[in-house]
Amino acid sequence: MAGSRTFTLLCGLLAATLVRATLSPPAVLSLSSEVIKERLTQELKNHDAVNILQQLPLLSAVREEPAGGIPILGSLVNSVLNFIIWLKVTSASILQLQVQPSADGQELVVKVPLDMVAGFNTPLVKTIVEMHMETEVQATIRVDTSKRGDSHLVLDKCSNSHGSLHISLLHKLSFMVNSLANKVMNLLVPALPKLVKSQLCPVIEAAFEDMYADLLRLVRVPVSLSSDHLEFDFLSPDIKGNGIQLNLRAKLLDSQGTVTNWFNKSAVSLTTPSLGSAPFSLTVRQDVVNAAIAALLPPEELMVLLDYVLPELARRLKSSIKVINEQAANQLGRTQIVKILIQERPELLLDQGSAKVAQLIVLEVFVTNEARRPLFTLGVEASLEAQFYTEGDGLMLNLNEISANRIHLMNSGIGLFNPELLKDSVTEILMSVLLPNENGKLRSGIMMSMVKALGFEEASWSLTKDALVVTPASSNFGSPLSQR
């Protein structure tokens, strides 16, 4: 009885530990406020937001309940409007957007500054009376979670910023016209914020929805890995600092489109560095990077006529074997063959700022090309220095120094011997045969189309203890919208 209670307690503690454990996504796309500003600005342009401002029905707006329902004031206002033939926006521009974290850090505040010139025509003067109008629209970006638990980003609470409206006369005219202009401006003070909320806010919300949908599309663009490809997909969003974070799942597919590996949230650690001055970063968990490299370096078999291709290396190998068994060394002919078998996919090992690739290699030596059985078979635990670099938006990998960390005698036709005696020769063979072959396969690189999709030409990279981080090498942000 006590044993069952103990078992139940242990299960409960284990379950509680798992619940508290932080599950890390396979990848994280972090976007700074600068990227959000640039893309939202472009979407506002696509939605013709400036034209919406130019079409604001100012005259009809000030005519609707102009005096708050007070008859005497209503008559006075109507008498003012009788002198107005038309009233409209003559030019408008959307200045540089601002994206800032909210006071509680749970939302992002988007500020859209508006700069407009409105004019009205009156029989009192032949020229158009112009007014300068400045105001600001404010909205918030937040995470919305449905009843099913699905999360996405929304933009809401769109309205005119309190106290941001300023209206002034551009050019002073006669006393009578100036007095009329002041009355018109007083009428616009309550009318313009309502117009902006009803006419422009829906456009801003639609622009954000399209921007968000476009971001989700670009993260789903397949990443080519020779005949295989890697695909990311959206998991959930977060608000982090002054930007947004898209948590991604991943899957690896073969040439037939069959999923060979799924990557989801797990207890595998993922350190997501802060953006700093970078416009965006893509942080990819170590196991996903490892699978991508493994797809570029599948299991294979290499054979080389050593004496023809690398005669000096063949001579040194023969000398090393002679120390072990002179008779066996004398059997090595001109057509001796070295066979290298890679039976398992490599494993990427990350450290802060550096990386290595571990491989299990089988090496066989045949005395001639007609020999059916190898002279001996060695199992080699090797490690290779991995150097990442970039070319444009491509992430490249080059393998450098190779080390035979451990060598095991798997099979021998010349009796037992210490395989470490052949370490130098084995290392040279792997450096001369295996390394160029694998670097040739890695030469195509991994094209990070996400970099160009976000508006940048070149990528940069860095390594943490558990992830590869891709950032842009340069930035080029857009300019304010304007139309006259």
TrEMBL record:
<dbReference type="Pfam" id="PF02886">
    <property type="entry name" value="LBP_BPI_CETP_C"/>
</dbReference>
<feature type="domain" description="Lipid-binding serum glycoprotein N-terminal">
    <location>
        <begin position="36"/>
        <end position="248"/>
    </location>
</feature>
<dbReference type="InterPro" id="IPR017943">
    <property type="entry name" value="Bactericidal_perm-incr_a/b_dom"/>
</dbReference>
<dbReference type="InterPro" id="IPR017942">
    <property type="entry name" value="Lipid-bd_serum_glycop_N"/>
</dbReference>
<dbReference type="GO" id="GO:0008289">
    <property type="term" value="F:lipid binding"/>
</dbReference>
<dbReference type="GO" id="GO:0070062">
    <property type="term" value="C:extracellular exosome"/>
</dbReference>
<dbReference type="Pfam" id="PF01273">
    <property type="entry name" value="LBP_BPI_CETP"/>
</dbReference>
<dbReference type="GO" id="GO:0002227">
    <property type="term" value="P:innate immune response in mucosa"/>
</dbReference>
<keyword id="KW-0732">Signal</keyword>
<dbReference type="InterPro" id="IPR021193">
    <property type="entry name" value="Bpifb1"/>
</dbReference>
<dbReference type="GO" id="GO:0034144">
    <property type="term" value="P:negative regulation of toll-like receptor 4 signaling pathway"/>
</dbReference>
<protein>
    <submittedName>
        <fullName>BPI fold containing family B member 1</fullName>
    </submittedName>
</protein>
<dbReference type="InterPro" id="IPR001124">
    <property type="entry name" value="Lipid-bd_serum_glycop_C"/>
</dbReference>
<feature type="signal peptide">
    <location>
        <begin position="1"/>
        <end position="21"/>
    </location>
</feature>
